[in-house]
Write a structure and sequence with these properties.
Elements (H helix, E strand, L loop, with lengths): L1 E5 L6 E5 L2 E4 L1 E2 L6 E5 L7 E6 L4 E2 L15 E2 L22 E4 L1 H4 L5 H5 L2 H7 L3 E4 L27 H14 L3 E6 L11 H4 L3 E7 L2 E4 L6 H18 L4 E4 L13 H16 L4 E4 L21 E3 L1 H12 L7 H6 L1 H10 L6 E3 L4 E3 L13 E4 L3 H5 L13 H12 L4 E5 L19 H16 L14 H6 L12 H17 L11 E6 L4 E6 L2 E6 L5 E4 L6 E5 L11 E4 L3 E6 L2
Parallel strand pairs: 9-10, 9-20, 10-11, 11-14, 14-15, 15-16, 16-19, 19-20
Antiparallel strand pairs: 1-5, 2-3, 2-6, 4-5, 6-7, 6-8, 12-13, 17-18, 21-22, 22-23, 23-27, 24-26, 25-27
Catalytic activity: hydrolysis of (1->4)-alpha-D-glucosidic linkage in 4-alpha-D-[(1->4)-alpha-D-glucanosyl]n trehalose to yield trehalose and (1->4)-alpha-D-glucan
Keywords: Carbohydrate metabolism, Cytoplasm, Glycosidase, Hydrolase
Pfam families: Alpha-amylase (PF00128), DUF3459 (PF11941)
Length: 581
């Protein structure tokens, strides 16, 4: 077997395998690359020593059996016998479900999560979006401090377990999306700087030096990340990738890394003959991100739409701190703007940033399915001081209204695990750092952050306490009992309607028409022949539907269809979906 590693600044490279050392040779055809031939098979442990330094894992390691700092292991992807025949499932018409392997079940493994996939089939979602799976220190964590961007966290089950999970999901008709983090690594267990200029001081991010996408040596660094992304899609038969915080990918080249990545993914999709897609997390509100390359965009297939979340969240909760301020001030008008225009900040002034932000999205040419809409996500729950879900403070009726606006709205809906039954369990920030100094720094930083917002330190959960992770695990007894069972039935009904009525998956943003009454607290919108109304106030509201004798498709509380006058009487904290066809 040929072992190879890129280390352009090294004078010597040594392969360590099975207790033996093998001197590596420079590859004359590839500057900076070193190679060596040695016997190996699936599971063989190995590592590289740079200039007689300590043995370190392979930057392109496919498996880290002993964690980020241990030896790498060879993975023979051809050994797995795929069972499910899978033609793929694209993003248009999708309903996504964000899932964290470590807390979806108490066991916290891929195999345990696979046993619960039947719940998602019954719910009606089309894709599971897995939070990051790359190795990180310890057992439990969110996954956003991963390293070894080609490997699967061993406590989750490692590479074979991911293949079993994907195989099981595909066998049930579910697509699988993986959240990948290209904007930073580590900090613990990150050995890349020893091998080459993977990072640059030219740019800085909230995590320190930026990934080197445009400085000297960046050709190979870009290839490293491109190849890693393609490996997930090819070797594990994933259907798409969610790209974390792409605004932190600093690249001044004429050909931006994201454009290069989108082209490579589209090429792979043609080769494997199934749809593949990229979903970005971005706070730039720049429609060029999701504009096709042939029209001058970067060509990503979709992006998370935090503006929709923020307008909905402030409308439901009244919260107005920090970045919520502008959205809270706008009220229902802000929700209307986002539902019809995609972005709230489209060049408007952002008081949080103290400058104008974003640019308009052309709603006549950008399909609504390219924006993901959601009521809750891991970020928006877990980055609260106590990791409290909306169910901790809102009534079931308001939760049902939120679900209706998300699942009957124009964007590709995404749910966060447990949301569908109004889970009472929080989802808190937890870590398992093995470095005591780093663990203490994270603990103190978390408490200091929220103390600045008025929280007492003792009220902020300790990220390193195993109980913090345990509290965040879903309680699978809840869906069978009230009030959770009623909420679950409502989510199932809304998703079924989205599947049954083409108007609810129509990607034409320009066809969304809205009406609202700020004082009365009701909001409604029209999508083709479907009418949606929510009453966020406590008193019954009279809502002009605009057409007589509309038929009720689903309602949270019993409601009479509008009469000849086309006026609907909708009870407080309730919602309804109607059709005029």
């Amino acid at each position: 077997m040929q072992f190879e590693v890129w280390a352009p600044q090294a004078d010597r490279l040594t392969l360590h395998r099975a207790g033996a050392a093998h001197a590596m040779e420079r590859d004359p055809g590839r500057p900076g690359w070193w190679t060596a031939q040695a016997e190996a098979s699936d599971g063989t442990r190995y590592g590289f020593a740079v200039d007689d330094g300590p043995v370190r894992p392979d930057p392109r390691s496919r498996r880290q059996p002993d964690g980020p700092d241990g030896l790498s292991a060879v993975v023979d992807h051809g050994r797995y016998d795929w069972r499910a025949e899978w033609a793929g499932r694209g993003l248009p018409g999708a309903v996504l479900y964000e899932l964290h392997i470590g807390t979806y079940t108490p066991e916290g493994t891929l195999d345990a999560a696979a046993e619960r996939l039947g719940h998602l089939v019954e719910l009606g979602v089309t894709h599971v979006e897995l939070m990051p799976l790359c190795p990180f220190p310890g057992t439990h964590g969110w996954g956003y401090e991963g390293v070894s961007l080609w490997a699967v966290h061993e406590p989750y089950g490692g590479p074979e377990a991911l293949k079993r999970f994907v195989d099981a999901a595909h066998g049930l008709g579910l697509g699988v999306v993986l959240d990948v983090v290209h904007n930073h690594l580590g900090p613990s267990g990150n050995h890349l700087p020893v091998f080459g200029p993977y990072f640059t001081e030219r740019h800085h991010t909230p995590w320190g030096a930026a990934v080197n996408l445009d400085a000297p040596g960046s050709d190979e660094v870009r290839t490293y990340f491109l190849d890693s992304a393609l490996a997930w899609l090819r070797d594990y038969r994933l259907d798409g990738l969610r790209l974390d915080a792409v605004h932190a990918l600093k690249d001044t080249r004429a050909l931006h890394f994201l454009e290069e990545l989108s082209a490579a993914v589209d090429t792979l999709a043609e080769e494997v003959d199934r749809p593949l897609f990229l979903i970005a997390e971005s706070d730039l509100n720049d429609p060029r991100l999701i504009t096709p390359r042939e029209r001058g965009g970067l060509g990503l297939h979709a992006q998370w739409n935090d503006d929709f979340h923020h307008t909905l969240h402030t409308t439901l909760t009244g919260e107005s701190q920090g970045y919520y301020e502008d959205f809270a001030r706008a009220g229902l008008a802000g929700l209307a703007k986002t539902l019809t225009g995609g972005y709230f900040h489209d060049g408007s002034y952002s008081s949080f940033r103290e400058r104008r932000h974003g640019r308009p999205l052309d709603r006549t040419s950008v399909s609504a399915h390219r924006l993901l809409g959601y009521t809750q996500t891991h970020d928006q729950i877990g980055n609260r001081a106590q990791g409290d879900r909306l169910a901790a403070t809102l009534s079931p009726g308001l939760l049902a209204c939120a679900a209706t606006l998300t699942l009957a709205g124009p964007f590709t809906p995404m749910l966060f695990m447990g949301e569908e039954w109004a889970a009472s369990t929080p989802w808190q920030f937890f870590t398992d750092h093995t470095d005591p100094e780093l663990a203490e720094a994270v603990r103190r930083g978390r408490r200091r952050e929220f103390a600045a917002h008025g929280w007492a330190e003792e009220d902020v959960p300790d990220p390193q306490d195993p109980a913090t992770r345990d509290r965040s695990c879903l309680d699978w007894a809840e869906p069978a009992r009230e009030p959770h069972a009623r909420m679950l039935a409502w989510y199932r009904a809304l998703i079924a309607l989205r599947r049954a009525f083409p108007d609810l998956s129509d990607p034409d943003l320009s066809d969304v028409k809205v009406a609202y009454d700020e004082e009365a607290g009701w909001f409604g919108f029209r999508r083709g022949d479907v009418r949606v109304a929510v009453n966020l106030g406590k008193e019954t509201a009279t809502i002009p539907v605009g057409v007589p004798h509309a038929r009720v498709l689903a309602s949270w509380d019993p409601v009479e269809a509008p009469g000849a006058d086309g006026v609907l009487a909708l009870g407080g904290e309730s919602c309804v979906v109607l059709t005029v066809a």
